[in-house]
Design a protein that fits this description.
The chain is α+β, with helices and mostly antiparallel strands. It folds into two domains: 2-88, no CATH class; 107-184, no CATH class. Helix content is 46%, strand content 22%. The protein contains five helices and seven strands, in the order H-E-E-E-H-E-E-H-H-E-H-E. The protein has helices spanning 2-12, 60-110, 136-139, 144-157, 173-178; strands at 16-21, 27-34, 55-57, 115-122, 128-134, 160-166, 183-184. The strands form two sheets. It has a four-stranded mixed beta sheet. A three-stranded antiparallel beta sheet has the order 1-2-3, covered by helices on one side. Helix 1 (2-12) packs antiparallel against helix 2 (60-110) and helix 2 packs antiparallel against helix 4. The longest helix has 51 residues, at 60-110. It starts with a helix and ends with a strand. The model is unreliable at 1-8 and 14-41 (pLDDT under 50).
């Protein structure tokens, strides 16, 4: 893609272009144009020739101008592509974590654990945290160990951290919100 961008930019500069590549994919450009269109400012040493004396190379300034134009255009295109990819990845991961959270919520309820709230915190583009606020007596439920084991499996296979916290009447929702747990499941 970068090669095509450079060719497009160079065509805007109205220069005929030959591109050569080394093993590290660095681009060596040789700009060739018909007689009288450019000044030859690259010295050709004795015992070397410029293939066709009727063709001349572009000046170093022309080469630099096109290189800088292509570089700037490449930066803009790379930024657009990066933003697009990050957005797509974030949307996909956010949907995925919400589905995992909803499925695990059902699993927890099915095992007799009383859930007061399920909250989601977005840590980064691909890292999330689920917080289950459950009743104090649910921590003593025999099935809680099974629920905890399942949460470890989910945590190990995804970029999700699952935590449990006991509910009490003094629970400060504002502190949870300020900590980033702004998305709730259910009501």
């Amino acid at each position: 893609m970068a090669i095509l961008l450079i060719l497009k930019i160079l065509n805007k500069c109205k220069k005929t272009t030959l591109l050569f590549f080394n093993k590290d994919y660095n681009i060596y450009m040789n700009f060739i144009e018909k007689k009288n269109d450019a000044i030859l400012d690259i010295p050709i040493l004795k015992d070397w020739n410029n293939k066709d004396p009727d063709e001349k190379q572009y000046s170093f300034k022309d080469l630099t101008d096109c290189y800088l134009l292509a570089k700037e255009h490449g930066k803009k295109e790379s930024k657009k592509e990066l933003e697009k990819n990050l957005k797509e990845t974030f949307i996909k991961d956010a949907k995925n974590v919400q589905q995992i959270g909803a499925d695990f919520y059902k699993f927890v309820i099915k095992n007799g654990i009383e859930i007061n709230q399920l909250r989601l915190k977005i840590i980064s583009f691909s890292e999330f945290k689920l917080l289950f606020i459950i009743s104090k007596k649910s921590f003593l439920n025999d099935k809680f160990d099974e629920v905890l084991d399942e949460s470890y499996k989910i945590t190990d296979s995804n970029n999700i951290d699952i935590s449990f916290m006991p509910y009490n009447k003094f629970l400060n929702i504002d502190k949870l919100l300020s900590d980033g747990f702004t998305i709730t499941y259910g009501k």
